Structure formats: C-alpha cells, structure tokens
C-alpha cells in the first residue's frame, strides 16, 4: 500500500506541474519576436525566394522568361521550401538535473523543461512537426502536441544520469538534446554520430548551475549526487577547484568538438542567466540547422 500511495503522490505532483509549465513556456515563447520562421531552402512553396542561373539538369519549364529577357542568360525562379520538417527533442530527466545550489533558485531540470517546451511551441507555431526521440511521441503538428510534450517533460527519472535516445531519428530532420551532460559522454558521442549518419543536424544545449561553473566550495564539504548513489567528503574543498574546473573545461571542449564534427551547434546555459536570451539562441541555431 505504501508503494501505491507513493506512486500516486508522485503522479499527482508530476501532473500539478503541467499548468504552470505550459503557462510559463507560452509566456517565454511570446517574448521572442521572431516573425515568420525562415526555412531558407528552395523547393515546393508559394513564396518567391530568388532567381538563379539555369543549370545543367534543370527543366526548361523552370525558366522565368520575363527575368531572362533582361539579358542573355536564362534564369530559374526558385520558391522557398515550405514543407514542415520534423524536429526531434531529447530532454534529460535524470536526477542530476534536479540540482540547484540555491534552495530558492531554479533547478537545471526546471530551466531545461522551460526552454525545451518553449522551443517546441515556437517551432509548432511556425508549422513544424515536433516530437521526441525514440518511439514514445512521434513528430506531429498542432496545439495538442504542446500538451503531449509538456506531459512527457513533467516526469522525473530515478537514475542520476540518463542517456540520449537516438532511436527514431528521421533522416534529414533536426534535433535538440538538452542535458547537463555531466555523466558518461560515450552515449552522447554515439547518439550524435548516429544522427549525423542520417543527415540529422541540431543543437546540443548544456544546462549548468552557476555553482557547477565556478565551484565556490571551501573547507569541509560533502558532495552527494541528487540520486543519493554517490557521495564524497573532503576537508579541503578549495584544493579541488583547479582540478575540477580543468575537467569541466575539458568536458565542454569535448562536447564542442563533437558538435563541430557532426554539424551540430553547442552552447552552455547557466540557470542564473536569462531564459529569453537562451531561447533566442536556440531558435536561431535550430533555424541554421537546415542542411
């Protein structure tokens, strides 16, 4: 009975997050004035994009004779690509994301949920199809999908660290992985390599607490994982700072290099910084991810 009561309490707590998360994500998305989403690739659509010279393999039916009549060259009238593209999201819901150095501050999980859902809202408003990596929630369009995503993001996982889900990555789609990336990076490398092999481009957003960035600890300190699976006590925490910061810099550099190799874009966001500026960067980076 205790287990059932505990599960019921957990489910009620998770369900209670939905309205607040949705409201905050809608508000955040509304603060970013982006205009119409520019999918700047030629293809099927109604909006004129550009003229370009006729190339070998082009059909003569593509020639814009009015533009071509101005000179000796023949020009093709290209239209902007307007077919909705799929965007796949992976949000780390492991226990390490529930860390906040300030009890009154924002947890990494809270900021990650907010940014991921707000990004989804902006993309859905632009006519994209958005879903989750894996098979639990395929990409769809429409307002109902926002509720489905919010519900999926509102749950927690007991493990300290979770691994990126790379199954179900649609060829030539886009993706966003959001995590603190403080666990083993081998699964991250495998997921991005698999994504790149399928022509998937995207964004890697690392979310850190300010204390994880500057290591402000001194004297006797007990470091314990949020999931209570690891603990380390030291009497001279300050002496660990230099080594810790070096390892963190190495980790961030590894993530950055991995993104450069796979055609993704990387940034690190701190929970003490503006969510709005982070969302604007994400949206522009996702728009630049068209191959």
Key attributes of the depicted protein:
2 domains, five-stranded parallel β-sheet, 8 helices, single chain, 17% strand, alpha/beta, 9 strands, Rossmann fold, two-stranded antiparallel sheet, 291 residues
Task: Please summarize what this structure is.
InterPro entries: DUF58. Residues 50-251 form the DUF58 domain. The chain is an alpha/beta fold and 291 residues long.
Helices and strands, with pairings:
Elements: H1 2-31, E1 48-53, H2 65-68, E2 75-79, E3 86-91, H3 108-125, E4 129-132, H4 143-153, E5 174-179, H5 186-197, E6 201-208, H6 210-214, E7 221-224, E8 231-234, H7 241-262, E9 265-270, H8 275-287
Parallel strand pairs: 3-4, 3-5, 5-6, 6-9
Antiparallel strand pairs: 1-2, 7-8
Protein name: DUF58 domain-containing protein
Pfam family, one: DUF58
Domain DUF58: 50-251
Model description:
Helix 1 (2-31) packs across helix 4 (143-153), helix 3 packs antiparallel against helix 4 (143-153) and helix 3 (108-125) packs across helix 8 (275-287). It is built from eight helices and nine strands. Helix 3 (108-125) links the parallel strand 3 and strand 4. The protein has 291 residues and is of the alpha/beta class. The longest helix is centred in the N-terminal third of the chain and has 30 residues, at 2-31. The chain has two domains: 14-37 and 84-287, Rossmann fold (3-Layer(aba) Sandwich); 48-79, no CATH class. The strands form three sheets. It has a five-stranded parallel sheet with strand order 4-3-5-6-9, with helices on both faces. It is elongated, with a radius of gyration of 23 Å. It holds the Pfam family DUF58. InterPro entries: DUF58. This is DUF58 domain-containing protein. It comes from Mesobacterium hydrothermale. Residues 50-251 form the DUF58 domain.
């Amino acid at each position: 009975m205790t287990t059932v009561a505990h599960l019921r309490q957990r489910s009620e707590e998770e369900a209670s997050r939905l309205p607040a998360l949705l409201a905050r994500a809608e508000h955040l998305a509304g603060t970013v004035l982006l205009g119409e989403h520019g999918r700047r690739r030629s293809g099927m659509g109604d909006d004129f994009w550009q003229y370009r010279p006729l190339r070998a393999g082009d059909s003569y039916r593509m020639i814009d004779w009015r533009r071509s009549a101005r000179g000796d060259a023949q020009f093709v009238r290209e239209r902007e690509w307007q077919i909705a593209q799929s965007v796949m999201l992976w949000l780390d819901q492991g226990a390490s994301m529930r860390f906040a150095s300030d009890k009154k501050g924002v947890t990494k999980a809270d900021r990650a949920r907010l940014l991921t859902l707000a990004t989804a809202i902006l993309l859905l408003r632009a006519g994209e199809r958005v879903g989750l990596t894996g098979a639990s929630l395929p990409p769809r369009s429409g307002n109902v999908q926002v509720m489905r995503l919010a519900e999926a993001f509102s749950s927690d996982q007991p493990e300290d660290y979770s691994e990126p889900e790379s199954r179900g990555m649609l060829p030539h789609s886009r993706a966003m992985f959001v995590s603190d990336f403080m666990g083993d990076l081998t699964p991250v490398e495998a997921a991005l390599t698999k994504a790149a092999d399928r022509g998937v481009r995207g964004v890697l957003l690392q979310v850190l607490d300010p204390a994880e960035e500057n290591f402000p600890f001194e004297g006797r300190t007990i470091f314990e994982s949020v999931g209570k699976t690891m603990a380390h006590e030291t009497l001279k925490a300050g002496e660990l700072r230099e080594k810790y910061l070096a390892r963190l810099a190495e980790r961030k550099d590894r993530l950055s290099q991995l993104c450069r190799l796979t055609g993704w874009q990387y940034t690190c966001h701190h929970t003490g910084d503006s969510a709005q500026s982070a969302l604007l960067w994400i949206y522009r980076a996702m728009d630049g991810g068209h191959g």
